[in-house]
Amino acid sequence: MSAYAALSQAGYRAYTRDKTTLFFTFAFPLIFLVVFGLIFSGQEVEQSGRPYISYIAPGVLSWGLGNAAVFGVGFVLMQWRRDDILRLIRMTPTPTSAVLASRYVLALGIGAVQAVLFVAVAMLPPFGLELSSGWPYAFLMLVVGVTAFLALGVIVGSFTRTPEAVAAVANCVMLPMAFLSGSFFPLDAMPGWMQAISRVLPLRYLNDGVSASLTGSGTTGDILLSCAVLAGFAVVFTAVALKTFRWSDRT
């Protein structure tokens, strides 16, 4: 527990001192919200009759949460391994679980603040997002979603050796997934084959669960189903992450 607490405190201090990263972690999803929200302001999706903001806000929020988790842990693990920090940690009685758990708690905290700020902006008059009574379920989706994408980020960080490689791999994973999962464009308006592909992508289920929670686009059963499928992805990604985790580039 002492090792976990020390790593958590060190991670928090390092994150809050990096003002540029701190700013863009929260600003990046908001930029997409503002751009798409203003472009489609007052418009409805023809296939469903629902306003675009009810698709755009949950989708961009889900992508932002996943993106922050993947990039955050991916960069940190790569840098710690490259600078031999992980090797030094390994020389102490610190288990792998303490290292990953410290990053997990930090990612959850960042995700919670990110979600609250994002929803508050989305509810402003220019965008007009209206919350449903099931909005608290969004926090359940946040926890499961951050778990899945943090594990994915550990995999990315374990296979990359430079910041450029982390950015390239993470972007190749997250950007196509965002478009294919309906984060930037409603799945209802996409071709059938794209909707079929989305069913094997974890971001699809985070989008669906957050959307059902915030806008009432689905039932409680739909939310729990999305949560269960996303939890399945989290289990698979975590197993792969633990298998591929490396303490040093020398091994």
UniProtKB/TrEMBL annotation:
Signal peptide (UniProt feature, chain positions): none
Report the InterPro entries cross-referenced here: ABC2_TM, ABC2_TM_bact-type, ABC_2_transport, Nod_factor_ABC_transporter
* Localization per Swiss-Prot or TrEMBL: Cell membrane; Membrane
Keywords carried by this UniProt record: Antibiotic resistance, Cell membrane, Membrane, Transmembrane, Transmembrane helix, Transport
The entry's protein name is: Transport permease protein
The cross-references to PROSITE patterns, in alphabetical order and at most eight, read: ABC_TM2
Q: Which domain of life is it from?
A: Bacteria
Record keywords: Cell membrane included?
Answer: yes
Provide a Gene Ontology MF annotation, just one.
ABC-type transporter activity
Species for this entry: Streptomyces odorifer
Membrane topology qualifier: Multi-pass membrane protein
Q: What is its main location?
A: membrane
Q: Which family does it belong to?
A: Belongs to the ABC-2 integral membrane protein family.
Q: Does the keyword Cytoplasm apply?
A: no
The cross-references to Pfam families, in alphabetical order and at most eight, read:
ABC2_membrane
Q: Give a GO cellular-component term.
A: ATP-binding cassette (ABC) transporter complex
**Where in this chain does the record put each ABC transmembrane type-2 domain?**
20-248
GO biological process terms held by the UniProt record: response to antibiotic
**Residue ranges of the TM segments:** 21-40, 52-77, 98-123, 135-159, 166-185, 223-242
